[in-house]
Amino acid sequence: MSTVTPPDLPVLPSPVRWSSATAAFQIEGARAEGGRGRSVWDTWVDTPGKVKDGSTAEPGADSYHRWTEDVALAAGLGLDRYRFSISWTRVQPTGSGSANAAGLDYYSRLVDDLLEAGVTPFPTLYHWDLPVPLHEEGGWTGRDVVERFTDYAGIVAERLGDRVTNWYTVNEPAMTTLQGYAVGELAPGEFLLFDAIPTAHHQLLAHGYATRVFREHGATAVGVANNHTHVYPLTDSADDRAAAAAYDTLHNRLFADPVLTGRYPDLSAYGDVDLPVRDGDMDVIATRPDFYAVNFYNPTTIAAPAPDIPIPFEIVPTPDVPHTGFGPDWGIKPDALRDLLIDLADRYPNLPPVVISENGASFPEPDTADGGIDDVDRIAYIDGHIRAVGEAMSAGVRVDEYTVWSLVDNFEWADGYTQRFGLTHIDFETAKRTPKASYDWYRRVIAENRK
């Protein structure tokens, strides 16, 4: 892909908050320090062949030791908020029992430093790092993990709730269900196909209980960060449109409907799905969020499946669009974000204010940043998507916040260090931080939108 830096800066039709994001396992390193336990991602990276480049998350960006540099980067951008995640295994090494003081101390220092720098901390309680002992007991397939998660929320809220009032509960439950439990592309690597759907219910239930815990400790803004995609049928044929609707139900509505309507969508396209719903569960899940968080990266194009494919859809590349470093399935089509936001507002008349909780792109970049990184393709991607948000706002969608993924280059899960999303380059040999051209560009966008 070849682009040029947009000549003017995007300006939204009304003020929003500006943010950037990271996640604990992807940037902290220090896997064996401070009493931290093991998560399913530790098992994944320690299993040969699971990570594309054979790397691990150690030391990575080494933010456990260099968090003050990340706070300085956040402040240097002029961010209103910094989204980071709290590692469950740092707080509760086995996922249950008493708190680990060293882990809580680390996040307490991070919160204090952000506040001192004038950046509001916006933590995510769960960004995929399920403790291994809980996985061995069934993980998100069972109900016990919901109680453990609620206890974990209470521990964190008790320690940080005097200074932190904005929380994400669970990050991308769709990807945990679909990639982690259904097809095994991500940790914990289960291959349950549609038997993975109960994990959606348990994650959403955990979100609902955590929401109540945080509010009991003074939180003013709590929500779940759902990964959404705008779904296009490959053609206008009835079969392709039916396949697209089936995929939209699985990826989008399965995770949005319960939170926003208190009901699950019709899952009959996936056979006799047995959701483990008990009395009162839907009321907990539908505890009204203060905002609705949308992680968005790319559209998804769907075709009717071939006769020998045992699922009701086939994902195909979106035609006639460029793509990010992840390849053709990660097409770049900013107006898909606009259309998604408008569709969400139409589908859910009671939609809370929207927060774009992740949006960004990876592109091939060198391991070292000598001479800087002129990442014009990333600038073009973010520029297009900010403008798409503005178009949705002009169409009547209330968007209160926009977040770039990510503040720094990170360990990109099963792709290791082959994908770089950061506004800041990380030399993974030295952890040296070098702001890219996109960092300065985003800083100027934020300043321009505050005029």
Structural summary, described in words:
Helix 7 (about 145-160) runs parallel beside helix 9 (about 200-215) and helix 12 packs parallel to helix 13 (about 375-395). The chain has a single domain (about 15-450), classed as TIM Barrel, CATH 3.20.20.80. An eight-stranded parallel beta barrel has the order 1-2-3-4-5-7-10-11, surrounded by five helices. A three-stranded mixed sheet has the order 6-8-9, with helices on one face. The chain has 14 helices and 13 strands. Helix 13 links the parallel strand 10 and strand 11. It has helices spanning about 25, 40-45, 65-75, 90, 100-115, 130-135, 145-160, 175-180, 200-215, 240-260, 280-285, 335-345, 375-395, 435-450; strands at about 15-20, 80-85, 120-125, 165-170, 220-225, 230-235, 290-295, 300-305, 315, 355-360, 400-405, 425, 430-435. The longest helix is centred in the middle third of the chain and has 24 residues, at about 240-260. With about 450 residues, it is an alpha/beta fold. It is about 40% helix and about 15% strand.
CATH superfamily: Glycosidases
Mean pLDDT: 96
| CATH classification class | Alpha Beta
SSE ordering: EHHHEHHEHHEHHEEHHEEEHEHEEEH
Shape: globular
Strand content: 5-15%
Distance between termini? 33 Å
Summed up, the domain count is: 1
Structural class category: alpha/beta
Keywords: Carbohydrate metabolism, Cellulose degradation, Glycosidase, Hydrolase, Polysaccharide degradation
Catalytic activity: Hydrolysis of terminal, non-reducing beta-D-glucosyl residues with release of beta-D-glucose
Protein name: Beta-glucosidase
Enzyme class: hydrolase
